[in-house]
Design goal:
With 455 residues, the chain is of the alpha+beta class. It has 20 helices and 12 strands. The chain has a single domain, classed as Cytochrome p450 (Orthogonal Bundle), CATH 1.10.630. Bound molecules: protoporphyrin IX containing FE. The site of protoporphyrin IX containing FE has 26 residues, from helix 13, helix 14 and helix 20.
Length: 455
């Protein structure tokens, strides 16, 4: 079958572009080949990049039996393991997703609101007047603590103190484009001892796994400790044959939720603080909206504010933390917008290019939250969390965290950019993050001190 046209560059160089300058490369390809093109990365099947909302709608609507995400995602298994929700397909994906869903949706997510505000306040209270700090690191402290509390129901203890720096260290091993190559080039994945990049990577992961194993054993042997946290839920779940999850399955899912559940949100928050410090008119408008709730606003009322929501949406639109949804491998031939694609084709909804379509987002490089108030975008036009049966499991938690962390900080602290230039989004493993992490400095405390009411 003839695949859509695409760049002729050697696949090694296409992959280097994807690692080193992904947004620029996507833009160059779209300018030349339009909204559907084939990209070829060394060591991977060709990916068909799609940024037409109607085509994305059809891809997101494909029946789960007609696609496999795990097949094209083997390299993700290196990070999270073969039992991660990110690589499961079919019935197992459906069952585990259903089991993991409740803690991330509806009323349950809202119940985390108070902790999110408290954790944000705790981290922000360490900032010193006129001293700079890296927004991304501060936000990662907040989001990691939130996910550890929700996944494990843990907020203190030796294991908790040990796992936090290990997770951060492990993620730092792929924190730059050069280090991210480790994930994409298989020939770099050789263990040459603890000082080699891959050796360090697998040893750090092993240490995290050992701590997760200890946590699992402790919870399992002590039913009184089991609560509403995700690990307890997984420990009590059984499959259709009445079998509980194996330790390996449990560890892979915990790792997935711990990593996917905090890295992305931390980066999105760092970008939000960049835009708020860069654009005083946006910050002022947002502060007016927050202040309109009066002294000590309720956390849930805050999370419903329209301009605050629009600021978060615009942040996720302009530089989506995850540039593409997961590539879907076809397991049956399908037709998308009249074009037939055969079994084995990889269809990839491109989040970044969709978010920069001029017909949807005029002056797409301009940060303008108002666009989300003027127009209702569909789930195929605004897609920071992907869609369909693989829609991000944690999107409601991520949005709540973003809104509450922004409102908590903005209500109390005056922050300024250390470097006013636009940071470059650069690869950080599977995500894209501002290259300088956004250095900020605290320049003052707001006069009308407000704190969010904890109910
Ligand atoms: C701003 C923050 C976040 C962004 C931008 C983001 C983005 C994404 C995207 C694009 C996908 C792929 C969806 C697709 O292929 O259609 C995804 C999947 C996923 N995300 Fe998130 N995510 C965020 C936060 C979170 C959080 C807080 C969690 C916590 C649980 C989480 C857990 C997951 C999981 C488990 C999947 C795999 C879902 C599946 O395959 O069924 N994410 N996310």
């Amino acid at each position: 079958m003839k695949l859509p046209d695409g760049p002729k560059l050697h696949p090694v160089f296409q992959l280097i572009n994807w690692i080193a300058r992904p947004f620029e490369y996507l833009e160059e390809c779209a300018a030349k080949y339009g909204d559907t093109f084939t990209i070829r990365f060394f060591g991977f099947q060709p990916w068909i990049m799609v940024s037409n909302p109607e085509a994305i709608k059809q891809i997101f609507s494909l029946h789960p039996d007609n696609i496999s995400v795990g097949r094209s995602n083997k390299f993700i298994a290196i990070l999270f393991g073969n039992n991660s929700l990110l690589v499961l397909d079919g019935d197992r994906h459906k069952q585990e997703r259903k089991m993991l869903m409740p803690p991330f949706h509806g009323e349950k997510v809202k119940s985390y609101a108070d902790s999110i505000c408290q954790i944000t306040e705790k981290v922000a209270s360490q900032w010193q007047m006129n001293q700079s700090f890296i927004a991304r690191e501060a936000m990662q402290e907040i989001t990691l603590e939130v996910i550890i509390q929700t996944v494990f129901g843990l907020s203190e203890g030796k294991r908790y103190e040990e796992i936090k720096p290990l997770l951060a260290d492990w993620l730092d091993l792929t924190a730059t484009p050069a280090r991210s190559s480790l994930m994409f080039f298989k020939f770099l994945q050789v263990d040459l001892g603890p000082w080699s990049p891959w050796g360090n990577f697998i040893r750090t992961k092993q240490k995290i796994n050992d701590l997760l194993q200890a946590e699992i054993e402790e919870k399992r042997s002590n039913p009184a400790q089991q609560g509403n946290d995700i690990l307890s839920l997984m420990l009590s779940a059984t499959d259709e044959n009445g079998q509980p999850m194996s330790d390996q399955q449990l560890k892979d899912e915990l790792m997935t939720l711990l990593i996917a559940g905090h890295e992305t949100t931390a980066t999105a928050l760092a970008w939000a603080f960049y835009w708020l410090a860069k654009l005083p008119e946006v910050k002022e408008k947002l502060l007016q909206e927050i202040d309109s709730l009066g002294e000590n606003p309720d956390a849930i009322a805050l999370s419903r504010l329209p301009y605050l929501t629009a600021v978060c949406q615009e942040t996720l639109r302009i530089y989506p933390v995850v540039p593409i949804a997961q590539p879907r491998t076809l397991t049956t031939p399908v037709e998308i917008m009249g074009q037939r694609f055969e079994v084995g084709t990889l269809l990839t909804p491109c989040i970044y290019l969709t978010h920069h379509r001029e017909d949807l987002y005029p002056n797409s490089k301009e940060f303008r939250p108002e666009r989300f108030l003027e127009r209702q975008y569909t789930n195929y036009e605004f897609i920071p969390f992907g869609g369909g049966v693989r829609l991000c499991l944690g999107y409601a938690l991520a949005m709540l965290e973003m809104k509450l962390a922004i409102a908590t900080v903005l209500s109390k602290y005056e922050l300024a950019l250390v470097d006013k230039n636009l940071p470059k989004p650069q690869r950080r493993g599977l995500t894209l993050s501002p290259n300088n992490g956004i250095p900020l400095v605290m320049t003052g405390l707001r006069e009308t001190k407000k704190s969010v009411v904890l109910n």
